[in-house]
From TrEMBL:
The UniProt record lists the keyword rRNA processing: no
Domain Cell wall elongation regulator TseB-like, first and last residues per copy: 37-81
Record's keyword terms, sorted: Membrane, Transmembrane, Transmembrane helix
Name of the molecule in the record: DUF5590 domain-containing protein
Cytoplasm is among the record's keywords: no
Native organism: Planomicrobium okeanokoites (Planococcus okeanokoites)
SUPFAM superfamilies (UniProt xref): Cystatin/monellin
Transmembrane segments: 6-26
Source species, domain of life: Bacteria
Ranges of residues in domain PepSY: 95-151
Length: 158
């Protein structure tokens, strides 16, 4: 009887682990596919010669941000809308970096954990989205202009 209980407990544990892994892989697949499609589109149009990173940026309209260097070696970001609209790009030379955006967002706040910092577009402006938890476990979104470092929008203490 004890062996049956151990067998059933072991089997259920194994099944739970397999299902969790499967859900994580299948849940991330649409984002991975969107990123791969955006990278291919950017390379096909010769906007970037080398890609360093890409991610999905969500606002009113989802887009994929692809960051890399062009054929002249300049650091650029290309924004590829998921709805099939026109691509837009911006040079990152002389703009606020992710680290500088975090510094601006964290002023006068006690940060416990940074969840992410992403570059995207809001109202045709290049914006850094900084998402973090404060010491009291409140979720905060701070949007920083990549042009001048001004605070575009804050959503605090969620």
């Amino acid at each position: 009887m004890k062996q049956w209980i151990l067998f059933i407990a072991g089997f259920l544990s194994f099944l739970a682990i397999v299902l969790t892994i499967l859900i994580l892989i299948l849940g991330n697949k649409p984002f991975s596919d969107a990123e791969e499609t955006a990278i291919a589109k950017v390379k096909d149009e010769n906007l970037l010669s080398e890609v360093s990173r890409s991610y999905v940026y969500s606002n009113d309209q989802k887009s994929v941000t692809v960051i890399g260097t062009d054929s002249e070696g300049k650091l650029k970001a290309v924004f590829v809308p998921m709805g099939g609209q026109e691509l837009s790009e911006t040079e990152l030379e002389g703009k606020i970096t992710a680290q500088e955006a975090r510094g601006i967002a964290f002023k006068e706040m006690e940060v416990k954990e940074v969840l992410h910092t992403k570059l995207g577009q809001e109202d045709n402006k290049t914006i850094w989205e900084v998402v973090f938890l404060t010491e009291n476990d409140k979720l905060n979104y701070v949007y920083i202009s990549a042009e001048d470092g001004s605070v575009y929008k804050r959503i605090l203490n969620l």
